[in-house]
Amino acid sequence: CEAVEGIGPLSACALVMAFLRGDFRNSDAFVAFLGLDVRVRDSGKQVQRRRLSKRGDPEIRRLLHNAAMAARRHPYWANVYQRYRDRGLQTTQALVILARKLARIAFALMKNQTTYQAKARPACGTT
């Protein structure tokens, strides 16, 4: 997990311990366990704001939020972050999306017991 941009030793340890606490069918279940899933409270024509369920460990959510802030400084994640900001999302909303993506990547790495392979990305200005 530490090979993923933004995830440090403390975040990696917390993600591994969270992964070992349960038997997750898919990454959605893992994200929900961490409390980063979206809670929808709609009824009929009434549409309310979407919020995080926050049912998981708050320390792991904090570590993932910090990992997302660190990852957005990496060129690839900076582009992803900026795309969400350009769509009109607020800073915190874009960081939560990045944190969820990092959690899904970590889940896939642990579930498949593989190492992280960063995609070869072209340098800026090349086609």
Break the fold down into its secondary structure elements and pairings.
Layout: H1 9-21, H2 27-34, E1 38-39, E2 51-52, H3 58-71, H4 75-86, H5 91-112
Antiparallel strand pairs: 1-2
Helix pairs in contact: 1-3, 1-5, 2-5, 3-5, 4-5
Briefly, what is this?
The protein is mostly helical. It has five helices and two strands.
Major sheet description: 2 strands, antiparallel
What general outline do the C-alpha atoms trace?
globular
List low-pLDDT spans: 122-127
What series of H and E elements makes up the topology?
A: HHEEHHH
In DSSP terms (H or I, runs of 4 or more residues), the helix count works out at 5
Report strand %.
under 5%
Return the structural class: mainly alpha
Strand line-up across the major sheet: 1-2
Through-space gap between termini:
30 Å
Q: How many DSSP-defined strands?
A: 2
Helical proportion? 40-55%
User: In the residues, how many domains can be counted?
Assistant: 1
Alpha-carbon Rg, integer: 16 Å
Overall mean confidence score, pLDDT:
84
